[in-house]
UniProtKB/TrEMBL annotation:
This is dTDP-4-dehydrorhamnose reductase. Belongs to the dTDP-4-dehydrorhamnose reductase family. It comes from Alteraurantiacibacter buctensis. Its cofactor is Mg(2+). It catalyses: dTDP-beta-L-rhamnose + NADP(+) = dTDP-4-dehydro-beta-L-rhamnose + NADPH + H(+). Binds 1 Mg(2+) ion per monomer. It comes from the Bacteria. InterPro entries: dTDP_dehydrorham_reduct, NAD(P)-bd_dom_sf, RmlD-like-bd.
Length: 285
């Protein structure tokens, strides 16, 4: 099985490569290999490679910057997906597209199910929703949230840096969701592929957290494993106290019960996977 993975240098791209099944011949491409804003080049590359499976793990993810770069975000998050689908047209190749909790508006009273109505609040969310539509009805679309992995660019590593540099931190406490360890997400994607999955699916780690809860846990676990040598006060603040260009959903917890039910692989709590990630981070030096 020939597998083309975009976003080779990203957290999920690396995790997918590391956990690829034995029968997969993986070609992973990154920004240096292909400009995803160039739709013609994307379609031509996909057509030339003619993969059995295309996993689109690349995206424009600068949520706040997207508010002033809407055309670029649209080109990468939606236009490139349209081009990928066109490149696969007429072949037996399948597409896996990775999406986000930001397609929802955060006003739900329960965790979001895959087929709940979307109402994105930001340019990033709108362009990711457009990417879901562009992937087509036969694609496998996996939504996730708050992704982190050792060595990546993410909230966990940012908190570790700030906790080492500052005397105190303020972190938003009224945005609720659940973190996701990238290797766990990658494992779910490969399992869904093996099942021939199509349509919408959700994956995040089990449990619920605010960004403040997550930050507190990061400090506690980092102190326990020796990544930090001192604790600093972490102060909860409201979203209104930390204004950003992009509006974020206040509640974006994903209901992953359908995914876990299909795969029969149980739930892993986000704090367990945070501990795993921090141990890997420590091993990196």
């Amino acid at each position: 099985m020939k597998v083309l993975i975009t976003g080779a240098e990203g957290q999920l791209g690396r995790a997918l490569q590391a956990s690829a099944p034995a029968n997969a011949r993986v070609l992973a491409i990154g920004r240096a290999d292909l400009d995803l804003a160039d739709a013609a080049a994307v379609e031509a590359r996909v057509r030339a490679e003619s993969p059995d499976l295309l996993i689109n793990a690349a995206a424009y993810t600068a949520v706040d910057k997207a508010e002033s770069e809407e055309a670029l975000a649209q080109a990468i998050n939606a236009g490139a997906v349209t081009a990928m689908a066109a490149g696969l047209a007429g072949t037996a190749g399948r597409m896996v597209h990775i999406s986000t909790d930001f397609v929802f508006d955060g006003r739900a009273a329960r965790a979001y199910r895959p087929h709940d109505s979307r109402n994105p609040l930001s340019v990033y969310g709108r362009t990711k929703a457009a990417g879901e539509d562009a992937a087509g009805p036969d694609a496998l679309i996996v939504r996730s949230a708050w992704v982190h992995s050792a060595g990546g660019e993410n909230f966990v590593r940012n908190m570790l840096r700030l906790m080492a540099e500052r005397d105190r931190l303020s972190v938003v406490s009224d945005q609720i969701g659940a973190p996701t360890w990238a290797p766990g997400l990658a494992a779910t994607i490969w399992k869904l592929v093996a099942r021939g999955g199509t349509g919408l699916w959700h994956h995040s780690d089990a449990g619920v957290a605010s960004w403040y809860d997550f930050a507190v846990a990061i400090q506690e676990e980092a102190l326990a494993c020796g990544l930090l040598d001192k604790a600093v006060p972490v102060i909860p603040i409201k979203t209104a106290d930390y204004p950003t260009p992009a509006q974020r959903p206040a509640f974006s917890l994903l209901d992953c019960s359908a995914t876990r039910g299909l795969l029969g692989d149980g739930y892993t709590h986000w704090r367990t996977n945070l501990r795993r990630m921090l141990l890997e981070e420590k091993a990196l030096g």
